[in-house]
Amino acid sequence: MEKIKIAVIGLGYVGLPLARLFSTKFSTIGFDRNSKRVDEIMSGHDITHEVDDELLSGAIVKGFYCTTELEKIRGCNVYIVAVPTPVDINNHPDLTPLIGASDAVGQVISRGDIVIYESTVYPGVTEEDCLPVIERVSGLKFNEDFYAGYSPERINPGDKEHTVEKIKKVTSGSTPEIATFVDDLYNAVLVNGTYKASSIRVAEASKIIENSQRDVNIAFMNELAKIFNAMGIDTQDVIEAAATKWNFIKMKPGLVGGHCISVDPYYLIQKAQVYGVMPRIMTEARRLNDGMGEYIVNQVLKLMNKKGVMVKDADVLILGVTFKENCPDIRNTRIVDVYHTLQQYTGNITVVDPWADEASLEKAYGIRVNGINPMKIDRKFDVVILGVAHNEFKGLNVRNLLKGDNRVVYDVKGVLPLDQIDGRL
Which residues of 261-289 are buried (b: 16+ CB within 10 A; e: fewer)? Predict the structure, then answer.
């Protein structure tokens, strides 16, 4: 363990916290193609807010560094891949970043080295798609000249309680000896230890079902919300009552976005079909959850009609646009579905989010965000929609933002006082 030198490929929400953590025990280099990202990190600031500036600066002082130059990670003997695994416009898995990272590893890997994948994939990707690339580029033979492991990431963006060092990690390896090595490697830096899976494919499968299970459960809650809203029953009240039973799984309805829950199920859905299995529950859950933005707008329009608020050209304020609270991550945020559906009726939509990066949001979704302090909003609106429960929105009397009492407040997150809202999911 003393001679281990680690390279972490991909310095996003997963890679940087992991690299910083490994740097506390091992010589560690971070690699990313994005020069802007590398420069920000080396200045001691993480724009994702996953690594505290003081921790990051301390790691840099002690020798941790990041680079865009592939040659600088040559000589490492453990390569950890933590790049995104997105879906394309048709929701088909896009392995392009993963294949690119494997190609990069193939250019620098040496005999006896180990590559560990953290990216979320369907069972088989590591051994069937990634390792053949490394073999082809390097000229080395898998499980003879180099070895592999898989330890799926469990980063929860914005979560300051379940940070990377406190997460219990699943580990695996391509041989029993490598599985033990990978397990020991992660145990060296983790507080709550590991679970050594029986194979790489089992470890891959365990990760993909973590998020798929949450997707299905949230879809059930969303379906219940539709049913109870139609009945005139408050869904949140129903959940609170049901949660008094000891084995009830308490979850809330809502928009399902981000890079994990709303993306990962598609990987398993596609792979299942290769084996002749149609995963109907997962597929229907994805369809239902992806349609919640339009459903929310329809609920808002009904409330507007009841109150006599003119829908055409109405002044609408959306509070929050990131995919979750107290987090700058805008990847696959479903608040944009609310925004774009509303655009069919009005062009007077103001988006306020103190966490979202204005340039990134406009580039990704064509939405301009006002990053002002929500307490300093000096306009009045016909409709206010709380989309994300940022701390900055707590304590905000949203009715003070309305043009009058006969206007509409809709709470997507179910966190506002009942006397301030006209409807909630």
Answer: bbbbbbbbbebbeeeeeebeebeebbebb
